[in-house]
Amino acid sequence: MRKVELYRFSLPMEAGVILRNQRLKTRDGLLVCLTENGKQGWGEISPLPEFSQETLEEAEASTLGWLHSWVNGEQAFESALPSVAFGLSCALAELSGFLPQKADYRKAPLCNGDPDELFAVLGAMPGEKVAKVKVGLYEAVRDGMIVNLLLEAIPDLKLRLDANRSWTRAKADGFAKYVQPQFRDRIQFLEEPCKTREESRDFSRETGIAIAWDESVREADFVVQAEPGVAAIVIKPTLVGSIQRCHMLVEQAHNAGLMAVISSSIESSLGLTQLARMAAWLTPDTIPGLDTLSLMQSQLVRPWPDSELPVLEVDALEVVWRR
Ligand SMILES: O=C(O)CCC(=O)c1ccccc1C(=O)O
Ligand SMILES: [Mg+2]
């Protein structure tokens, strides 16, 4: 006997969360609950505006098609839409026990430009200190100075930086010039400094600053391989696809000697806790990039440990389909 429930959610975001060109007022998505033999499996399907190719409407239509097949015991094919493939694979993996319960709730704190906030968080962080700083939003020179300041002030800190392809080579060089040479190897990586992969590779070659692929991982021609200067790939499952596909990418990265970082696409606490479980399972030696819950005003169904945000329960959600 199989049963399905499909819910829609809309969680208010903190004021001022901007994604590329738009303000994100609410985080909208679907929750699916599969039941079979008295067991339940949950999954979150929430395409991220400005980042996902698919809209929520398209994701919903694809999900409904899959759920119809599954509940009727027919062959249900993996959706071509990454957010759908991810959420449904999570639900199936919970049903089958394939996704372990143990989670890695460490997260690399995100800094959007105010180093004072970061000092406080890092001071309280046990163990390995890794933070992620968004760069490329202000002047490259300012970014360089903030990186210096942080690395100088906290000797056991390592940084991940993320430029989201915002720099020309000249701007990226302007940044690098301000980072003291002795600090450069404490930059674990700089995600996608330049507009093209070729420019980013050149940048790394010339500055000695390691880089990581994020946007590139989702491009059709991308191949995971060892390259000079490349330290890591960032895997955002909602943008990439099923757990199986993410698992394969992690394996390919590790075989190539690259770090794989499981990372958030601003999922609700339900999806985020599943990402923390994927990280504990697939990348146990790497702190995942999951510090996005505080961008929201509410959690969803499953709380993240120690978060003080209120939790929206299932009964408060709109039911899209139930069978
Ligand atoms: O990677 C992280 O640590 C947090 C997630 C993050 O930065 C992010 C989240 C959603 C969309 C894009 C990005 C990004 O990498 O720029
Ligand atoms: Mg990025």
UniProtKB/TrEMBL annotation:
> PANTHER family of this UniProt entry?
O-SUCCINYLBENZOATE SYNTHASE, O-SUCCINYLBENZOATE SYNTHASE-RELATED
For this UniProt entry, the molecular function terms from Gene Ontology, in alphabetical order, are: magnesium ion binding; O-succinylbenzoate synthase activity
Which positions bind Mg(2+)?
D162, E191, D214
Say which enzyme class the record assigns.
lyase
Q: Which NCBIfam families match?
A: menC_gam_Gplu (TIGR01927), PRK05105.1 (NF003473)
In the UniProt record, does the keyword Cytoplasm occur?
A: no
Could you name the active-site residues? K134 (proton donor), K236 (proton acceptor)
GO-annotated biological processes: menaquinone biosynthetic process
Pfam families tied to this protein: MenC_N (PF21508), MR_MLE_C (PF13378)
Q: Does the keyword Metal-binding apply?
A: yes
Full protein name: o-succinylbenzoate synthase
HAMAP family in the cross-refs:
MenC_1
Q: Which family does it belong to?
A: Belongs to the mandelate racemase/muconate lactonizing enzyme family. MenC type 1 subfamily.
